Amino acid sequence: MKAKILFVSLLSILLACNSADMNSNFETGLESNAPNQVLLLRVDYTTNTFEGGTILGFDKKTEDFTIENEYVVPSDFGSVKLIYKELWQPLFEGTIHWMGRGKMTFPKKLEPASAFKHISTYDLRYPTGFENVFNPDNRELDYDKPWISVQALAKTREFLTANPTQKAKLFLYTPSVGAGDPKDWYWLIYLKK
């Protein structure tokens, strides 16, 4: 009888919880009031066209911004997860298929490129450098090409101004491997405010 009462009590508590309460230290969108913000931008690998992005907002501020990865090698199916180490919060999750195509599972949605304002300027603005977040195949990568497509965004400039000594963190997501198609691949660029 005690077990039934305990079970019903726990079930009531769980049902009363709201998913927003469970993840209240995180938000996404283009406008954020969170004290700690990370800008995520997506750029097509083959065309270097900016495709969209979001701002990931966190309640806790941190001095450092380290991205760790959890990688499951795709023998048939694999995955990659990028984690904000200091907060142990996800920045990206995606599946990888051998001879197929995986997909991004976190964040669920990115704002389209059309939602981002561009600055009309001819000056190029760079971070203090580029940091490769994860490159399992040790490919030779050119970071200038994807950077050029996002450096004139108002949000990029805002984040660089707020944190002028940062390096841009880049990750080439390859959801298709083996005989995968590079047209499925895209860059993820991270900047912290």
What is the strand content? 35-45%
Radius of gyration: 19 Å
Amino- and carboxy-terminal Cα gap: 54 Å
State the order of secondary-structure elements, H for helix, E for strand: HHEEEEEEEEEHHEEE
Instruction: Please give the share of residues in helix.
Output: 10-25%
Keywords: Signal
Organism: Bacteroides pyogenes
Protein name: DUF5043 domain-containing protein
What's this, in brief?
The chain has 193 residues and is an alpha+beta fold. The protein has helices at 2-16, 19-22, 144-150, 154-162; strands at 26-27, 36-44, 50-58, 67-72, 77-84, 89-98, 104-106, 111-112, 130-134, 168-173, 176-177, 186-192.
How would you describe this protein?
- This protein has four helices and twelve strands, in the order H-H-E-E-E-E-E-E-E-E-E-H-H-E-E-E.
- The chain has helices at 2-16, 19-22, 144-150, 154-162, and strands at residues 26-27, 36-44, 50-58, 67-72, 77-84, 89-98, 104-106, 111-112, 130-134, 168-173, 176-177, 186-192.
- The strands form two sheets. Strands 1, 2, 3, 8, 9, 10 and 12 form a seven-stranded mixed sheet that branches. Strands 4, 5, 6, 7 and 11 form a five-stranded mixed sheet that branches.
- The relative contact order is 0.20.
- The model is unreliable at 1-27 (pLDDT under 50).
